[in-house]
Design goal:
This protein is mainly alpha-helical. The chain has one domain: MetI-like (MetI-like fold). Helices cover about 75% and strands about 0% of the residues. It has 10 helices and no strands. α3 runs antiparallel to α4 and α4 crosses α6.
Length: about 280
């Protein structure tokens, strides 16, 4: 019996036409967006603009390193971390009950096949609340709270808490519902309460992913807290804004270096926690 020769591999990617098509569609959609945003990067190298840029960068050198200023920067850096941590902690207090209320896997009424109207309406209401919370940027919340409670870290903590509660609640719900729900359903069918089903069914198999995302959001909150400082919400960002208004480039340079180090340390801490949980 004759044996057939091995088939030679194709010389080109069989999916190249589809990829070229979607790349072309993306390019066609991108062009009007660039036009709408007046994207003109060549303006950066025009002589007048380049002169202003170089002068701005020259003012950054050398960084200010006297002891009194560094002590103040260290205090504000610690305050920035505190704002982020307190904001995420408050966000968790809001996000966890909202997640439990919006997760269909914990619905007793859905065990018969179709969720009853009232529980369905309540879950949809909670999900819309999560949409509202995460749709309003933390910068807008900070502007509101600065007018309510005044300048300082309290506004930053509340702003992060509201926006991040919506983000955490949304992703927590997706994580819980995308995993295996057989154990949870079995517990509910056998008379367990919703909290028991959550702690013994959903949580054990999703704990690592939930914790990893929470740590990632804490890292993002540190960056956000610095930005919120520019609207008076305290921390390193508020001091940086003051120095920029005074055209003191050396102070801004020092605070930028400290903030880069702060984000780097937060990244190391979050990476270490993810590895420990993985």
């Amino acid at each position: 019996m004759a044996t057939s020769a091995p088939t030679a591999p194709p010389m080109r990617d069989p999916a190249w036409a589809r990829r070229v098509f979607w790349a072309s569609v993306g390019a066609v959609l991108l062009v009007p967006m660039l036009i709408a945003t007046e994207f003109k990067p060549w303006l950066l190298i025009e002589p007048d603009n380049l002169k202003v840029t170089l002068k701005f960068l020259r003012d950054f050198l050398p960084p200010k390193l006297d002891a009194e200023f560094l002590a103040m920067v260290a205090r504000e850096a610690w305050r920035t971390v505190a704002i982020a941590t307190a904001g995420v902690a408050l966000a968790l207090l809001l996000a966890i009950p909202l997640t439990l209320a919006s997760t269909a896997a914990l619905s007793v009424s859905a065990l018969s096949g179709r969720m009853h109207r009232l529980p369905f309406a309540l879950r949809q209401g909670v999900r819309w609340l999560l949409i509202v919370l995460r749709s309003v940027p933390e910068l807008v919340w900070a502007l509101v709270f600065v007018r309510v409670v005044g300048l300082g870290p309290t506004a930053g903590v509340l702003a992060i808490a509201l926006t991040y509660s919506g983000m955490l609640g949304k992703v927590y719900g997706e994580i819980l519902e995308s995993g295996e729900t057989h154990a949870t359903t079995s517990l509910l069918r056998n008379g367990a309460g919703r909290l028991q089903a959550f702690f013994y069914g959903l949580l054990p198999q999703n704990a690592a992913e939930l914790t990893s995302y929470t740590v990632y959001r804490w890292e993002c909150a540190i960056r956000s807290s610095a930005v919120l400082g520019f609207v008076g919400a305290g921390g390193l960002g508020q001091q940086m804004d003051t120095s920029m208004k005074m055209f003191n480039g050396s102070e801004v340079s020092t605070m930028l270096l400290v903030f880069i180090g702060l984000v780097w340390l937060a990244d190391l801490a979050s990476s270490g926690l993810r590895k420990a949980l993985g």
